[in-house]
Design brief:
The protein is of the alpha+beta class and 431 residues long. Strand 3 (27-33) and strand 4 form a beta hairpin. It has helices spanning 5-16, 57-65, 105-156, 171-232, 239-267, 278-288, 290-296, 315-332, 370-373, 393-403; strands at 20-21, 24-25, 27-33, 36-40, 70-76, 79-89, 95-104, 274-276, 299-303, 311-313, 338-346, 356-363, 407-413, 417-425. It has ten helices and 14 strands. The protein is rod-shaped and about 175 Å long. It starts with a helix and ends in a 6-residue tail after the last strand.
């Protein structure tokens, strides 16, 4: 085999397929006699083959002396190789040489660096893409949140029409819509509070006016009415004078009713509470007006709630409430119409978590125009003809219900009738 190139070149062609890297063969094969190269395709520095060169000392020690296989990174002439050495034995099992194979390390080093560079580039690209995607998603989340924060500041400053920008999608859209509903609910509550405040101020003003003048007016009226009736008893009056005196008496009676309404409105007497069976109270109230309803041809129906709770209330004041609403219902109905009372334990609780009952008074009369619904409880507001109402009945009614901690709701449709729904807590007062 000495200087035989065929066998080592055949091994290189078979194992490494004569592959080259940067103009150099990536594989080398060498046959050693003892520790001297006798056949090889490892190039020498002069361009030939490195015939006659010796193997490295550590390789000789492990392979020739110890008979071990040896793999290592080694400098072969001018290049680093990944090498493997195997002992060659004769038929007597004596080590006579070495078979050495080497793979050019530079290809794998370059591949490793290219792989590492590709990995680094992919990692950096992934990080950049993740950063951009994160910024985009954060913008879609944070921007609406910032708009909600600004809108909250606007609401804090008193605006009920804050700008929250376009509605997003997903969970953020739910949050934005909930915020809008919350602001709308705040607006409704503010409007209701303002209406209640205006009504309270109006009632207080009327109460102060009533308290100041009612007694001063009432005494002279009593005198006028007394002397008018005394004159009407005289037999020597002609019909024209009698008619004039009758007009004076009727007008004076009307003024007395107005003064009485003012006094009732201004007093706002503290309720004298007791446990009341509301069903029995309604039945007794209906019996008081039964004849008037019969004369007018209006039917009255009562649908009492079963197992209705007892309510702590002022019996007389609440009977006035029922009478006021019933009288208005009779005025709004015609022969053949019906007025229906009904009661029930209410599933609704107030803000103090108090249980209550509901009293409904519904009629099939003429109904109330929508533009009048918000004015029903205003003092002196009335749709009745002059001389048929003072406009204080429902104001007094609302005051009594509110002093009991309750509410009054009105629904109506012109030509079909109206329904007054009274909710009153069982305790009859606000905690």
């Amino acid at each position: 085999m000495n200087r035989d190139e065929k066998i080592v070149d055949t091994v290189r062609g078979t194992v490494f397929r004569n592959e080259e890297y940067k103009g150099r063969s990536i594989g080398r094969a060498t046959i050693f006699l003892k520790d001297v190269r006798v056949a090889t395709n490892v190039p020498a520095q002069d361009g030939g083959r490195a015939i006659g060169t010796r193997v490295a000392e550590d390789v000789r020690e492990h392979v020739l002396e110890k008979g071990e296989r040896w793999t290592k990174q080694a400098m072969v002439i001018t290049d680093w190789y990944i090498t493997a050495y195997e002992p060659i034995k004769d038929i007597s099992d004596k080590i006579v040489g070495i078979l050495g194979m080497g793979v050019l390390e530079e290809k794998y080093v370059d591949l490793r660096w290219r792989t590492l560079a590709s990995f680094v580039l992919i990692t950096l690209a992934g990080m950049a893409l993740a950063t951009l995607l994160g910024c985009f998603l954060a913008g879609r989340i944070i921007n609406p949140v910032h708009r909600l924060i600004r809108a909250s500041q606007q609401v804090t400053e008193g605006s009920l029409t804050p700008d929250i920008g376009p509605v997003s999608s997903g969970e953020m859209a739910v949050l934005q819509n909930t915020f809008k509903e919350m602001v709308a609910a705040m607006g409704r509550r503010r409007a209701e509070s303002q209406d209640r405040l205006v009504l309270s101020e109006r009632q207080a003003s009327v109460g102060r006016l009533a308290a100041g003048v009612a007694h001063e007016i009432n005494n002279p009226l009593t005198g006028v009415l007394t002397y008018t009736h005394m004159l009407l008893r005289r037999k020597d009056l002609n019909e024209e004078v009698r008619a004039d005196l009758q007009t004076i008496a009727e007008a004076t009676e009307r003024v007395r009713k107005i003064v009485k309404g003012l006094l009732d409105f201004s007093r706002q007497t503290k309720p004298d509470r007791e446990q009341v069976d509301v069903n029995r109270l309604i039945s007794s109230t209906m019996s008081l007006m039964e004849n008037q309803a019969l004369l007018k041809g209006v039917g009255m129906v009562f649908k009492p709630g079963h197992d209705l709770h007892m309510v702590n209330m002022d019996r007389n004041q609440f009977q006035s409430v029922l009478l006021n609403i019933l009288i208005n219902a009779l005025d709004a109905t015609k022969p053949g119409d019906t007025i229906t009372f009904s009661t029930a334990n209410s599933p609704v609780r107030n803000e103090a978590e108090q249980e209550g009952i509901e009293i409904s008074i519904a009629d099939t009369g003429c109904g109330i125009p929508s533009e009048h619904l918000n004015k029903l409880f205003d003092p002196f507001f009335t749709t009745k003809e002059v001389g048929h109402g003072t406009g204080l009945g429902l104001s007094v009614t609302l005051g009594i219900v509110q002093r009991h901690g309750g509410t009054v709701q009105v629904t109506s449709e012109v030509g079909k009738g109206s329904t007054f729904t009274i909710w009153v807590p069982l305790e009859g007062r606000v905690r």
